[in-house]
Specification:
This protein is 34% helix and 27% strand. It is built from 6 helices and 7 strands, in the order βββααβααβαββα. The radius of gyration is 14 Å and the shape is globular.
């Protein structure tokens, strides 16, 4: 996946966690350092999950680090949001994961364009600080080298 020139700030956009709470991003990101994994297709969940163990380990060592999954779903599916989100929530059941999974329904380009996401064939990763500034970008499945670059960026925040 190619991430083009991203803006300095994560765009302001409405989302809903899988417990049904409406939130606004990036204000809903609770950490000093927030890894936001943006997915565009259901089959990308394995890519999101590949980052899970590293994120859990990082969060245990760094109380200011948080991890969020942001599925972005085209507006045509918004009328069945309750069913789609309910299906995800039923599969997850863990309250912490339900709170950190923030679904966005609508015009996908409203998130993709400001973040410089050109190719939606894989997941996009963003390290976002407390102010909403994007401090690092990456993409795809977990890899040690990419995680090392992310960790260096997180230490600089």
């Amino acid at each position: 996946m190619t991430i083009g020139q991203a803006h300095e700030l994560f765009p302001t956009i409405k989302a809903r966690d899988l417990e049904g709470r409406d939130v606004t991003l990036p204000g809903a990101f609770e950490g000093e350092r927030n890894l936001v994994v943006v997915a565009f297709r259901r089959e990308q969940q394995s890519l999101v999950d590949s980052w899970g163990p590293w994120c859990e380990e990082r969060a245990a060592a760094d109380p200011g680090f948080r991890f969020y999954e942001v599925p972005v779903i085209e507006r045509v599916w918004k009328p069945v949001r309750r069913m789609i989100d309910g299906g995800m929530a039923a599969a997850i059941r863990n309250p912490e994961v339900l709170r950190r999974t923030l679904t966005v329904y609508g015009d996908v380009s409203r998130l993709a364009t400001p973040l410089g996401i050109i190719d939606r064939s894989t997941v996009a990763l963003f390290l976002v600080d407390r102010t909403g500034a994007v401090r690092w970008t990456g993409s795809g499945r977990y890899e040690d080298g990419e995680a090392h670059d992310l960790e260096r960026a997180a230490l600089a925040v």
